[in-house]
Amino acid sequence: MITLTDVHKRFGQNHVLQGATLSVGRGQSMVIIGGSGTGKSVLLKCILGLVKPDSGEITVDGQPTSDATDREAFLARFGMLFQGGALFDSLPVWQNVAFRLLRGATKRPKAEARDIAIEKLRRVGLKPDVADLYPSELSGGMQKRVGLARAIAADPEIIFFDEPTTGLDPIMSGVINDLIREIVTEMGATAMTITHDMSSVRAIADQVAMLHGGLIRWTGTVAEMDTTADPYVSQFIHGRAEGPIAAIR
């Protein structure tokens, strides 16, 4: 569904992606791990076309993203759960969830959009009375669920999850991980997640990719991740200070 071939991206002297190559199968849940500042978010932004690679090729469903002249139609294929929730404080919950449904070429009548939003809120375990609250009235875990409901509101083919459990306690992290796994499976969506949380990796990944030094250093299943001799992966998943990944002191 998604392929990256020898993708490079610089920001000034900072060569963030240095030939990243990755393949994500249709309906597969791919989790990308790696240290802070290694370019995981840049990778997602390159796929979405929010950042233009300096070289290399990215395809979605076999078509180069550089050929996507209708940006609205292209982006409509994606859903996104942002790290900080990224909810609009001035809009009630249901309008946050239905944000895409109320705009653009896929615009729905307001009443229909509200009904869809409430149904998606139910899917992530929130009651209908949450719909008319504002984000500031919700806990962190509830805000994350609203963000997840928004990500799936338009039934996208591809969903990106950016650090989905950041700032949540272990129990709520487990709830969000279970919801992500269930929803991705139900929808048959292709998913890409970036995370530092190894419990998330084990809960939602079909495949894991390690990004370091601007390259995808390793890919494999969770079982293979736990037994690999790759020193980068081993150091990262076990949180060791000593190893090829230099700690910033």
Write the layout of secondary structure elements.
Blueprint: E1 2-11, E2 14-24, E3 29-33, H1 40-48, E4 55-60, E5 63-64, H2 71-75, E6 78-81, H3 93-97, H4 110-123, H5 140-152, E7 158-162, H6 170-187, E8 190-194, H7 198-204, E9 207-212, E10 215-220, H8 222-227, H9 231-238
Parallel strand pairs: 3-8, 3-9, 6-7, 7-8
Antiparallel strand pairs: 1-2, 1-4, 4-5, 9-10
Helix pairs in contact: 4-5, 5-6, 6-7
Tell me what you see in this structure.
The chain contains 9 helices and 10 strands. By secondary structure, the protein is α/β, with parallel strands linked by helices. α4 (110-123) crosses α5 (140-152), α5 runs parallel beside α6 (170-187) and α6 runs parallel beside α7.
Q: What fraction of residues sit in β-strands? A: 15-25%
Mean model confidence by pLDDT: 91
Q: How many E strands?
A: 10
Distance between the termini: 40 Å
Structural class: alpha/beta
For the largest beta sheet, what order do the strands appear in spatially? 6-7-8-3-9-10
The major sheet is characterized as: 6 strands, mixed
- Principal-axes geometry comes out as globular
Based on CA atoms alone, the radius of gyration comes out at 18 Å
Count of discrete alpha- or pi-helical segments spanning 4 or more residues: 9
Helix content: 25-40%
What is the ordering of alpha helices and beta strands?
EEEHEEHEHHHEHEHEEHH
Contiguous uncertain segments of 5+ residues:
none
